[in-house]
Write a structure and sequence with these properties.
alpha+beta, three-stranded antiparallel sheet, two-stranded antiparallel sheet, 5 strands, 45% helix, rod-shaped
């Protein structure tokens, strides 16, 4: 017996049980729960990542402030630069130049408070008048307000900081004053 091309075998109707329908419904519902859970978890993860990034940025800025204070102290320790006596104003300019070269915004550079403090028994105000090995410090502070806010890309509530400061102590490397007697002993 030959079958024609159009002869199809008829199969029994597909029966869908109630448990199979319920399983499909729960599978779709579970996919929705997964999407909601992912949205909640991703929100927390993104906020944590932004917080860690903000803390890292503040550590980076703090390191640049420390390096700027060190550069100012190194400059002040020499006492003279190209035969020019080093004053507190020259040290402040040197620190501001360092901050500018490091990429700080203009508001932070101009708002920076830079102090040179004599920590020795000698009384001097400008580093060029320091005695050899006189101890002094250079402090660089970015105060709260426009200067500090120019360094933050998001609210400072993550770190809780409202100003940054770095202090270094250094010893003067000025030459010792020598008195030479010009008269001959005989």
């Amino acid at each position: 017996m030959r079958r024609s091309m159009f002869h199809h075998r008829v199969s029994a109707p597909i029966r869908v049980s109630a448990t199979a329908t319920t399983a499909r419904f729960h599978k779709r519902a579970r996919r929705g729960v997964v999407a909601v859970e992912a949205a909640l978890v991703m929100t927390v993860v993104v906020l944590l990542m932004l917080g860690v990034w903000q803390v890292g940025q503040m550590l980076h800025v703090s390191r640049i402030l420390y390096d700027a204070a060190s550069e100012g102290a190194r400059y002040a320790a020499g006492g003279c630069s190209s035969s020019t006596p080093v004053t507190v104003a020259l040290v402040q300019t040197e620190v501001q130049n360092y901050l500018t070269a490091a990429g700080f915004p203009t508001a932070a550079v101009t708002g920076a408070q830079i102090t040179v403090t004599n920590l020795s028994a000698d009384s001097w105000t400008d580093p060029c008048n320091a005695q050899p090995l006189d101890l002094f410090s250079v402090t660089v502070t970015i105060p709260s307000g426009a200067a500090f806010n120019s360094l933050c890309w998001m609210s400072n509530t993550v770190t809780g900081l409202n100003q940054l400061s770095a202090t270094v102590q250094w010893l003067s490397a000025n030459d010792a004053q020598a008195v030479v007697n010009t008269t001959l002993p005989f």
